[in-house]
Amino acid sequence: RLQKIDNDYYPETLYRMYIINAGSGFKLVWNTVKTFLDPQTTSKIHVLGHRCQSTLLEVIDEGQLPEFLGGTCTCADQGGCLRSNKGPWKDPEILKLVQSGDAEVAISNSEGRVI
């Protein structure tokens, strides 16, 4: 029932998800779980093992990827990346646009077309 509610009211809200450092036990469980999910959704979920740096660097800038995942980000001024609140919502330029009401948003689908 929960999955039906999710599909009916929040269709395709996931763009892409990476599950990293997944062991063989998780991968075994995932193969079973994904049979209960919509194939379009499961195609967006990428389960990666311990050697995931090259895949992550294809989609995340090295300066934004934490050191422990192969990037150069340390967030030293915030107690490390796991404790930081780093994100575009903290960018002064973005905040200025949002607060002034001048921000424009375009939403695109997974093919990159604006919807």
Report on this model:
With 115 residues, the protein is mainly alpha-helical. The chain has helices spanning 2-9, 24-33, 39-42, 53-59, 92-100; strands spanning 17-19, 45-47. It has a domain at 2-81: CRAL-TRIO lipid binding domain (Phosphatidylinositol Transfer Protein Sec14p, 3-Layer(aba) Sandwich), CATH 3.40.525.10. Helix content is 33%, strand content 5%. A two-stranded parallel sheet has the order 1-2. The longest helix has 10 residues, at 24-33. The radius of gyration is 18 Å and the shape is globular. The chain starts with a helix and ends in a 15-residue tail after the last helix. The mean pLDDT is 84.
Features:
115 residues; two-stranded parallel ribbon; single chain; golgi apparatus; Phosphatidylinositol Transfer Protein Sec14p; mainly alpha; 2 strands; CRAL-TRIO_dom; transport; PI/PC_transfer
Provide a brief overview of the structure.
The protein has five helices and two strands; from the N terminus they run H-E-H-H-E-H-H.
